[in-house]
């Protein structure tokens, strides 16, 4: 794994945004996979800034988000789709038809997962996948468990994950859906390149387990050790256990 450590979360975000802009310049039809969460917010702000400065052109790019809550429509204020609109999509020039998202309100959620896998394949696969890491080692919504799903699937969210997401639902944990849809580990590991971003001391332990620990379904991010092109963008605090 290629580990890059920056002094601050801001420098980490700026470097990662430049990394994405370079990938877009090299391949304008780039297929990106994108995460939600607090960590990528600064990176998305930096990408909006680069776009405004004429340094990041998304006109021909395609995006697939890693996951979405089940049981709420894309327009729900707590949905990841709404999060992405606010933090990234509104400020860049993606073509609407090339913004791909799991629909948590689809009438048949298993069919929706299959549709997503087919859409990724039809796009030619994911070139560059950005991901955060949960303090419990999850990646996307692949939660620690005795077994992990390979493909896009329905998932029951861990209580800790629901608590982490309560801010999207006005701080009310009971309003956070209990289920979600997520790319599976194989979907993630088929990306050409994977960039994991983590900032803050809270992530130091899970980063260490993901990078140095045994490959275990109880630390889903540890499966990244099996991929040949993984980059870690860390601030100093998240790198302290390495
Ligand atoms: P966070 O979430 O960026 O809000 O810490 C990361 C994740 O759960 O993937």
Explain this structure.
This protein is of the alpha/beta class. The protein has a single domain, classed as Rossmann fold (3-Layer(aba) Sandwich). Helix content is 31%, strand content 17%. Strands 1-10-9-6-2-3-5 form a seven-stranded parallel β-sheet. Helix 1 packs across helix 2 (40-52). The longest helix is centred in the first third of the chain and has 18 residues, at 9-26. The radius of gyration is 17 Å and the shape is globular. The two termini are 12 Å apart. The model has no long low-confidence stretch (mean pLDDT 97).
Task: Give a quick set of tags describing it.
Rossmann fold, single chain, alpha/beta, 10 strands, binds 2-phosphoglycolic acid
How is the topology of this model organized?
Elements (H helix, E strand, L loop, with lengths): L1 E5 L2 H18 L4 E4 L5 H13 L9 E4 L1 E3 L10 H8 L11 E2 L8 H14 L5 E4 L21 E4 L2 H7 L13 E4 L2 H5 L3 E6 L5 H9 L17 E6 L7
* Count, helices: 7
Bound molecules: 2-phosphoglycolic acid
Main β-sheet, spatial strand arrangement? 1-10-9-6-2-3-5
Q: Please provide the count of β strands.
A: 10
Give a short overview:
This protein is 31% helix and 17% strand. With 242 residues, the protein is of the alpha/beta class. Helix 1 (9-26) crosses helix 2.
């Amino acid at each position: 794994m290629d580990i890059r450590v920056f002094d601050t979360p801001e420098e980490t975000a700026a470097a990662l945004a430049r990394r994405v802009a370079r990938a877009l310049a090299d391949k304008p039809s780039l297929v990106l996979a994108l995460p939600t969460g607090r960590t990528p917010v600064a990176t998305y702000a930096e990408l909006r800034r680069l776009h405004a400065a004429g340094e990041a052109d998304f006109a021909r790019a395609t995006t697939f988000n890693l996951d979405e809550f089940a049981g709420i429509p894309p327009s729900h204020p707590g949905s990841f789709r709404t999060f992405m609109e606010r933090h990234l999509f509104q400020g860049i020039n993606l073509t609407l038809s090339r913004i791909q998202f799991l629909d948590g309100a689809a009438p048949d959620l298993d069919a929706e997962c299959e549709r997503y896998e087919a859409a990724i394949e039809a796009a030619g696969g994911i070139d560059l996948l950005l991901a955060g890491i949960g303090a419990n080692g999850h990646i996307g919504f692949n939660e620690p468990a005795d077994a992990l799903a390979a493909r896009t699937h329905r998932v029951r969210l861990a209580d800790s994950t629901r608590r982490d997401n309560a801010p999207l639902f006005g701080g009310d944990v009971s309003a956070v859906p209990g289920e979600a849809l997520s790319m599976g580990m194989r979907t993630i590991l088929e990306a050409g390149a994977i960039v994991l971003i983590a900032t803050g001391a809270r992530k130091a332990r899970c980063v260490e387990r993901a990078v140095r620990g045994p490959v275990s379904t109880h630390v889903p991010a540890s499966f990244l050790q099996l991929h040949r092109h993984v980059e870690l963008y860390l601030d100093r605090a998240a790198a302290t256990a390495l």
